[in-house]
């Protein structure tokens, strides 16, 4: 892991006072040299790196200020690569792209989104097959499966949890009555989505979602 | 992600009502001006009269047509699976069901709850059926597989299905 760091350090401009490293001293300073193999057979001569440190001969005490990990590699008490990069900021990272975000927002604020999904799962459990947009159908799957899993459990606590989510209590009672027979052997995947023709008014892609 | 692309498998027509088959005949069904494709949405108000069905094949072959609804009374609880709407036997190839013998008169789709699938199944007969079959005792709890086995029809040769749901009573704005 020190190799890419060394490449980065080689790209930085050298100052008036610079230290020249040789590959062997770098190897000895590394915590676990057995984790990777250096290309010693390919190049015999030591690779020289330039480290921009203003005073290389001072002792290693750097006080309480956070040490720049790129500078700390030259200091004698540098332990490992990861320590320098711990930044305490509460975990909030803001990226420009949506990479890895899996909650479908359905163009609605959170309270409306929850209400929409509750209504859709209620209607699906009532009618067995409904026609809606593809985004809503694929967003609903998780919650329909959750309700059927609650019904499979069957205890009073789960029944009350289902009653708190589904809008009509007759549907909850009917669900708890018939799910053990109908889905007893099936493990998950209680819905099926069939894509169909787009809606005429706004060309929205539509889908049927049905209980398996 | 559907494992198969065939709309009959995706719509679970093969599975709930039929077994996997290889279509060897073509059948085109028209309700008025609308041609039925697998999974299309049809309003029950346009299905009051029996559809026009054109069957391919030679005129010396005889075909049987069955129209059923596997989602009766509701797709989430199909306790009356299947509800049979129409049975016509001894249809000569290349013609339509009016030239055959109507065992069970046509009943129009009336889905009470949810979206129902209505399936037209075409079988090729080995021999004229004639009087071998009578009207089923009730339209409910019909089994197309057992009907085909009873008349020794084998696997179907053509199938098409459409979806229909109850129309709202008041006119949509």
TrEMBL record, chain A:
Keyword Kinase: no
InterPro entries, alphabetized: Ribosomal_bL17, Ribosomal_bL17_sf
Lineage top rank: taxon: Eukaryota
GO cellular component, one term: ribosome
Keyword annotations of the record: Ribonucleoprotein, Ribosomal protein
Entry keyword Ribonucleoprotein: yes
Protein family according to the UniProt entry: Belongs to the bacterial ribosomal protein bL17 family.
PANTHER family: LARGE RIBOSOMAL SUBUNIT PROTEIN BL17M, RIBOSOMAL PROTEIN L17
HAMAP family: Ribosomal_bL17
Name of the molecule in the record: 50S ribosomal protein L17, chloroplastic
Encoding gene, per UniProt annotation: LOC104712000
TrEMBL record, chain B:
InterPro entries hit by this protein: PEBP, PEBP-like_sf, PEBP_euk, Phosphatidylethanolamine-bd_CS
Membrane-spanning parts: none
Coiled-coil regions listed in the entry: none
Pfam families registered for this protein in UniProt: PBP
SUPFAM superfamilies according to UniProt: PEBP-like
Matching PROSITE patterns: PBP
Family as reported in the entry's similarity comment: Belongs to the phosphatidylethanolamine-binding protein family.
Protein name (record): Protein MOTHER of FT and TFL1-like
Lineage: Eukaryota, Viridiplantae, Streptophyta, Embryophyta, Tracheophyta
């Amino acid at each position: 892991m020190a190799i890419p760091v060394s490449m980065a350090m080689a790209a930085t401009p050298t100052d008036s006072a610079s230290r020249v490293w040789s590959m062997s001293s770098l190897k000895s300073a590394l915590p676990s040299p057995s984790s990777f193999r250096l290309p010693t057979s390919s190049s015999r001569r030591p690779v020289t790196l330039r480290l921009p440190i203003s005073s290389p001969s001072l002792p290693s005490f750097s006080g309480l200020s956070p040490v720049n990990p790129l500078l700390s590699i030259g200091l004698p008490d540098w332990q490992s690569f990861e320590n320098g990069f711990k930044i305490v900021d509460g975990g909030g990272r803001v990226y420009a792209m949506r990479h890895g975000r899996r909650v479908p927002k359905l163009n609605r604020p959170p309270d409306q989104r929850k209400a929409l999904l509750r209504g859709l799962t209620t209607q699906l459990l009532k009618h067995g097959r409904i026609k809606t947009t593809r985004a809503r159908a694929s967003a609903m799957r998780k919650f329909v499966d959750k309700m059927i899993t609650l019904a499979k459990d069957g205890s009073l606590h789960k029944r009350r949890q289902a009653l708190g989510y589904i809008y009509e209590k007759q549907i909850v009672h009917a669900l708890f009555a018939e799910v053990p027979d109908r889905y007893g052997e099936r493990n998950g995947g209680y819905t099926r989505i069939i894509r169909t023709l787009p809606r005429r008014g706004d060309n929205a892609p539509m889908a049927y979602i049905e209980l398996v | 992600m559907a494992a198969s692309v065939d709309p009959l498998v995706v719509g679970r027509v093969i599975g709930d009502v039929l077994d996997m088959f290889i279509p060897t005949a073509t059948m085109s069904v028209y309700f008025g001006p609308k041609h039925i494709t697998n999974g299309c949405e049809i309003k029950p108000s346009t299905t009051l009269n029996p559809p026009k069905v054109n069957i391919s094949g030679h005129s010396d072959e005889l075909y049987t047509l069955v129209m059923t609804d596997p989602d009766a009374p509701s797709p989430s609880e199909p306790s009356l699976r299947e509800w049979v709407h129409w049975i016509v036997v001894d249809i000569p190839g290349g013609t339509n069901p009016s030239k055959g013998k109507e065992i069970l008169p046509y009943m129009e789709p009336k889905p009470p709850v949810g979206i129902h699938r209505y399936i037209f199944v075409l079988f090729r007969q080995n021999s004229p059926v004639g009087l071998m079959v009578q009207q089923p005792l009730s339209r409910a709890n019909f089994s197309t597989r057992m009907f085909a086995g009873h008349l020794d029809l084998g696997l179907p040769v053509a199938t098409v299905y459409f979806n229909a749901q109850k129309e709202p009573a008041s006119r949509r704005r």
